[in-house]
Design goal:
single chain, 278 residues, alpha/beta, TIM Barrel, eight-stranded parallel barrel, two-stranded antiparallel sheet, 13 helices, 17% strand, globular
Length: 278
Amino acid sequence: MPTRRHFLTTVGALAAGALAVPLAASGAKSQRIGIQLYTVREDMLRDAKGTLARLAQLGYREIESASSAKGHYYGLSAKEIKQVTNDLGLSLRSSHVHIDQDWQRTVDEAAEAGQEYLICSSMPTTGQTLSNYERVADVFNRSAEACQKANLRFGYHNHEYEFAQENGQIFYDTLLSKTDSKLVHMELDLGWVVAAGQDPLRYFARYPGRFPLWHLKDMKRDEAVSTELGTGRVNVVQLLENAKKSGLRYFFVEQEEYSTTALDSAKRNVEYLRKLGY
């Protein structure tokens, strides 16, 4: 499934980077810029600590990790990534994982890393049917209970396939309606929503407060391929202006494909957001 870096030097920029108040409480422009590490996955696999340092230099402050060939933290242990991110002035907020037979171990690891959210990154069972999505909703509710016991928040990250329908019912809407809104928090991948022909603003309006996390992703105008922010078909500015409606707390820039290199795209994305006042 298609998927998933100069410290601030002026006093004003440092002040902005120090803010950690969620968007929902204080308005969009207080948000610190985050990144999903899948964006720089090859760099992370080669040199996790060096890549995290580069991201911090570029101005990123919030981090979301992802499963890799070297584990959930690209070869670092839960204690190590907690220490490294703290030392760099980064906050590890979340990570992408799979629900499997080792779920409790995954939960315990996330708690040890000190993160707030644990996000299921893909459907735990396959099947594009309403009945399967109803079963998955039950799995999410149970998985969220295990997270709650560990003082974590559970969530799910969408792709485009959840917006298919059966008998006029959108599968993603089934997940929203069949999961406990107090326990199951949705991470809305804005790029995939748009690529699926849906409007994120519709979801903000219909399910206010259900989307505390975003993947801030732009998509090319003529194909379902990610691109640098502000160059594609996703109306990034409009979505950010409506952040409070979604219940947004943290957003993570994510880009899977690049015109040059992953780190260059990460630099261009943070520069774009700085121009918007973030």
